[in-house]
Design goal:
Blueprint (H helix, E strand, L loop, with lengths): L6 H4 L8 E7 L4 E7 L2 E4 L7 H4 L10 E5 L14 E3 L6 E6 L3 H13 L6 H18 L5 H12 L5 H7 L4 E6 L11 E3 L6 E2 L2 E7 L5 E9 L1 E2 H6 L4 H5 L5 E9 L6 H5 L2 E7 L5 E7 L7 H9 L8 E4 L24 E6 L3 E9 L10 H10 L4
Parallel strand pairs: 6-16, 8-18
Antiparallel strand pairs: 1-2, 1-5, 1-13, 2-3, 3-4, 6-7, 9-12, 10-11, 10-16, 11-13, 14-15, 14-17, 17-18
Helix pairs in contact: 3-4, 3-6
Amino acid sequence: MAHIFDPARDMAEDWLEGCFAGRMDFGEGPTPVIVRNGTVLDMSSVALTLSGLLETAPDLDRGRSIGALSDVAIKAGDTPGPRLLSPVDLQCVKAAGVTFAVSTLERVIEERARGNADEAAAIRQKLEDVIGGELRAVRPGSDDAARLKQTLIENGLWSQYLEVAIGPDAEIFTKAPVLASVGWGQPIGIRSDSTWNNPEPEVVIISDSAGKPVGATLGNDVNLRDFEGRSALLLGKAKDNNASCALGPFIRLFDKTFSMDDVRAMDITLDIEGPDGFRLSGVNSMSQISRDPEDLIRQARSEHQYPDGFALFLGTMFAPTEDRHQAGGGFTHVLGDVVSVSSPRLGRLVNTVTTSKAAPPWTFGISGLIANLSRRGLL
């Protein structure tokens, strides 16, 4: 499906008031841009990369105007003309998992079902009856959490997922290599050998090299429930595959119009439109997160430095359980699903599902970026 970028639909409702950073390809290669007061500014004379641009407050007076965003004909895929790229480049892409009670239960279900979707419904009901309410109420790392852990151990219900859900240490993992994420309108990939998978609509915080949060964007942390359910040691295969990480459309920078408190109160909506006529909608309410975003940022950087900054997926409460193909079979993607992740404050990220093998191969790495900047006379 061809997607045409429409600011009225794909940008934040108040996009003319906020300040947005991103990357576009006007035909020569990746270009850092700022969208301010409805105008696109080419910021390559200020910084060669978006990570560099976000290290200090961008000097907008040095940007070259491309024109009004509404007049820039942005299309998806490899069609000629301006394209939106993932709004991160040299930043490491990290992710926090099991940060919502609902998704915690689903991870435990995957583990106990050993990745078999047919067994999920019965396990889900049992776990919800036994620990659902307590899990939603407890604060991670607290004395109450420690007591709940001991009770679960005594009843044979403890899980490694519950450890990161209510214990002192959050799960933080690497989602994608540098420059491997895809942006608005680009295909998003699932492994061709996965039979139980789903999107994960999330807020993604962008931090600079000092660990200071500078803005937020939308993300889809594609999840393979069958792989991770078989073994948590398969997390790398479940999470890091070609085109399996989508970000965009832009990073909304923190300023007087947008703050971390807006992130804490945000609802993220997910819509799936299948080629088979299947429709699914859901909401990820950040107010229900178990760990505060700033705590997750602190844990991500506590004993690791990121000289080019990092992006951090904050996790999701969305874990679809609706049956798609058969009773008790739950949800899984089919090729051609159009997945939209949206928020009134951040806009709309849209991608079409394919396999990681069929998606355009990732060939533009760090050496490719250096060579491209050199050819364009920017180094």
